[in-house]
Amino acid sequence: MLSRRRLLAAAALPAARALAVPFAQFPLGVTTDEIDDDVLTAIKMLKEFGVKWAEIRNIYGKYNTAQPKAKIHELRSLLDEHAIRVNVLGTGFFKVPLPDDTPAGRTALDAQWTLLDGAIDRAQILGTNKIRIFGFTYPAGERPAATAYPRITELLREASRRTKAKSKGIRLCIENVGQSYIWSGEQAGRLLKEIKEDNIGLTWDPNNAAETGEQSFPDGYRHLDPARIYHVHLRDFRKATNGKVEWCAVGEGTMDNLGQLRALRKDGANSSYTLETHWKSPQGKAHATRTSLTALIKVIEAV
Question: How many structural domains is the chain composed of?
């Protein structure tokens, strides 16, 4: 039986604390090439921190989709040997200018469909059901044309159909990213309201959204359906003297990672997570990831 004092103390805890889980049970991964392009080197750091997940993007100097399948099978064996699982496969699918409906545009689009097919194959080899994709790009200095969104919606729906035809269970996770038609939380939320397919959702990156001037959490996040957030990228940012967003070590910027994580858990988002620090430390990217990972784990333990 709990004493009255202990019951009163438990009742006084903030409600968010009831959502806390031990870090060992939190589905956090790290983008391996932000430690090192050599996967074994990256794995050693993951194991040092007790991280059991990895986001695979570049390996051995190339995008995973540019590596032969034999190399991907070798990677799977290496990950299995060290009990590391892949939470999402990072690809460059649809991170290209929106193709026109012309012969040249259709040729460019065919190359993207080939890329998607290869990504599905690699995701299946690596045992993940999530593929990070994008929503097309527009030139720097321009604004996204409102007339482009119906075509983007159509092409993303086509990607959904092709994915379902080739594989059961694979989910496409659109990342909101700079110079993309899906950059802010508001843009991501609006797009996903138009796409009802249940195998398309979001890789939510609140730091990228902040580059638009949006207060990504809580304002941008309010536009999103938590059930459509399949994956989340975590890091930190601050405003430089020129007013632009720059990446920094977790805990040294203005991103409310604690508030964002608490909101995701409270809202029942069944998301996986990746530390993608992007911060370029003078001491190298492994040091940058180590510094941010140390701080991020403390945040997670406070959720």
Answer: 1
Partner residues linked to 175 by β-bridges: 203
30 forms beta bridges with 54, 275
pLDDT value for 16: 38
pLDDT digits (tens, 9 = 90+) for 138-189: 998 899 999 999 999 999 999 999 999 998 899 999 999 999 999 999 999 9
The answer to whether residue 21 sits within a structural domain is no
Residue 246 within any structural domain of the chain: yes
Amino acid at residue number 17: R
Check if the beta carbon of residue 65 is closer than 8 Å to that of residue 75.
Answer: no
- 217-235 pLDDT per residue, tens: 999 999 999 999 999 999 9
Helices 149-166/185-194 angle, 10° precision: 60
Ranges in the chain, pLDDT < 70 = 1-21
pLDDT of residue 168: 84
Instruction: Report the first-to-last Cα separation within the chain, whole angstroms.
Output: 27
Distance in angstroms (rounded) separating the CA atoms of residues 229 and 181: 18
Residue 24 within a domain: no
Give the predicted TM-score (pTM) of the model: 0.92
Helix (H) or strand (E) segment spanning residue 111:
helix 103-126
Asked if residue 133 belongs to a domain, the reply is: yes
Residue 286, φ and ψ in degrees, nearest 5: -65, -40
Residue pair 105/63 in contact (Cβ under 8 Å)? The answer is: no
What number of CA atoms fall less than 13 Å from residue 201's CA on the CB side? 24
Domain that holds residue 85: 29-302
CATH number at residue 69: 3.20.20.150
